[in-house]
Amino acid sequence: MIEELLKYDTELFLFLNTLGSETWDGFWLVVTAKWSSIPLYALLLYLVYKHFGIKATLLILVSITLMITATDQLANLFKYGIQRPRPCQVASLKDSIRFVAENCGRYGYFSAHAASSMAAAVFLGLLLKKWYNYLPFLLLFWAVIIGYSRIYLGVHYPLDVITGMFFGGIIGAVFFQVQRWARHRFIPAS
After folding, report:
1. Cα-to-chain-centroid distance, residue 96
2. Residue 105's Cα: distance from chain center in Å?
3. How far apart are CA 7 and CA 143, in angstroms?
4. Alpha helices, DSSP H only, in 83-157?
5. For 31-74, how does the pLDDT look when each residue is reduced to its tens digit (9 = 90+)?
6. Is the pLDDT of residue 190 over 60?
7. CA-to-CA distance for 45 and 64, rounded, in angstroms?
8. What's the CA gap between 110 and 165, in Å, rounded?
9. What's the predicted TM-score (pTM) here?
10. How far apart are CA 129 and CA 106, in angstroms?
11. What's the gap between Cα 133 and its chain centre?
């Protein structure tokens, strides 16, 4: 059953990966670059500060730092525990895929990019939805786009991305609840 799932995963990867064209390669390289999300993070940080003040914002930043660390470490635990090669490392796929990324890591299950972006989307979407009803949906869309970029570039299978999003969503929701508890416990209401 696992072999059949991995076969379908590879077929879906090949379909999605080969949809790309050189015209769009630069766009997807920018989307996947961590620095390209800095303007979005700066805007979200401003909104957090605007609605929560400095003390709560500092607590929220600590929560986000711990959350991203948790997603990255969990992804590394899976990558080195399962050791599923990235598609760009599989010799039988090299002639079939579009490899656009600048480098190709060793193992890919599961995507830390997908996990971290989904964790941030869930955490910040829940945090700010009281003031911006549409924001959770925009952030989830942003996380899905980042996940797809990993397939487009040839460095992750769809299952790597979906699993990363799953764990990222859970971690984002858990850290949201923890920071909410800590904020109410340690920061007096104004």
Report:
1. 26
2. 17
3. 25
4. 112-128, 135-152
5. 999 899 999 999 999 999 999 999 999 999 999 999 999 999 99
6. no
7. 11
8. 9
9. 0.92
10. 38
11. 21
Longest pairwise C-alpha distance within the chain = 61
Please list the residues that pair with 85 across neighbouring strands: 107
Q: Which of 102, 115, 190, 100 is nearest to 152 (CA)?
A: 100
* Secondary-structure percent of the chain, ordered helix, strand, coil, rounded to 5: 75, 0, 20
Nearest to 123 by CA among 46, 70, 63: 63
Residue 45 CB partners (closer than 8 Å, separation 6+): 57, 61
> Do the Cβ atoms of 87 and 156 come closer than 8 Å?
yes
Helices (H) and strands (E) in the chain, counts: 6, 0
For the stretch 17-30, pLDDT in tens is: 999 899 999 999 99
> pLDDT tens across 132-182, in order?
999 999 999 999 999 999 999 999 999 999 999 999 999 999 999 999 999
Supply 137's token pair: 């949906």
Distance (Å, whole) CA 15 – CA 45: 37
User: Roughly how many angstroms between the first and final C-alpha of the chain, as a whole number?
Assistant: 56
Specify whether the CB–CB gap between 171 and 71 falls below 8 A: yes
Residue carrying structure tokens 């991305």: 161
